[in-house]
Amino acid sequence: MTSTISFNDSAVNHQTFLLVGIPGMQERNSWMAFPLSLLYLLTLFGNFTILFVIKTEESLHEPMYLFLSILACSDLGLTVSTMPTMLGVYWFDAREISFTACLTQMCFIHLFQWTESAILVAMAVDRFIAIRNPLRYTSLLPNTVIVKIGIAILCRACCLLFPIPFLIKRLPFCRSNVLSHSYCLHPDVMHLACADITVNILYGLVIVVSTLGLDVVVILVSYILILQTVLSIASHTGRLKALNTCVSHVCAILIFYIPMIGVTVVHRFGRHLSPIVHMMMANVYIAVPPLLNPIVYSVKTKQIRQRIWKMFQ
């Protein structure tokens, strides 16, 4: 009985983790510091610009752009919750992070990722309604409905997130405290536990199937219906115009899911690859989508592009 208590006490006292920069070359972390800092500033600038343009331009107060503003807020939340820690590792070699800080960051990362996935689903449905019923588009999706959808998206993410802190806090950590990345993720942290993590693994699987898996299915069904609607349009010009309104959203889907799939594949099947490959993929997975989303929508959306051009003039 005494040995069990002392074991638990020692596990509970293990309250810090070590983040990793460039594996095996910690002295060269500064190589990544400047590119990440530049990326961080561009991400903040791009998403704040999108929010400012949508807020100040009344012609952009439509469902598509309101969903885009929610997407920009999600990207900002993900960036702000991860980049300071990552920059601390690469600039100052500040690798140590407390258990509480790690748990908090983990929750925010997963919260904003699940939120973004649901926003992409809502935007797919939005594109379908806009193409199927262009004359009734704004009446079918008034601002009150957009607000309710936003609240539902956030509630879903919070409900999914709720068990994770308890699932992590119940685990004793008495093995290596070195994480695989420069930020905290639930799969990364749970594998450091010296206890049975079957519940954590099963819950993670349930989340992947019920959120990301289900979201992808809904997006695919939406685009199948969009293609059926577009093909029923008699005018070739009308078909191209309808499809052109979906280009930005398709790019956003690819930007979000391709890095996620890439990281999963590298973790599952790329253990023989260089640790630097794992590090680069992990950084791309977190840092690149929030940077590219505002760029894609600024370039591909005429109204936003013109408003930004006027703003800088």
From TrEMBL:
Known Pfam families for this protein?
7tm_4
| Superkingdom of the source species | Eukaryota
The record gives the membrane topology as: Multi-pass membrane protein
Question: Where would you find this protein in the cell?
Answer: Cell membrane; Membrane
Q: Mind telling me which residue stretches traverse the membrane in this protein?
A: 33-54, 66-92, 99-125, 145-168, 216-234, 246-270, 276-297
Task: Please state the protein's primary subcellular location.
Answer: membrane
Keyword set for this entry?
Cell membrane, G-protein coupled receptor, Membrane, Olfaction, Receptor, Sensory transduction, Transducer, Transmembrane, Transmembrane helix
InterPro entries, from UniProt? GPCR_Rhodpsn (IPR000276), GPCR_Rhodpsn_7TM (IPR017452), Olfact_rcpt (IPR000725), OR51/52/56-like (IPR050402)
Q: Where is the G-protein coupled receptors family 1 profile domain?
A: 46-297
PANTHER family attached to this UniProt entry: OLFACTORY RECEPTOR 51H1, OLFACTORY RECEPTOR 56B1-RELATED
The similarity comment for this entry is: Belongs to the G-protein coupled receptor 1 family.
Name under which the protein is recorded: Olfactory receptor
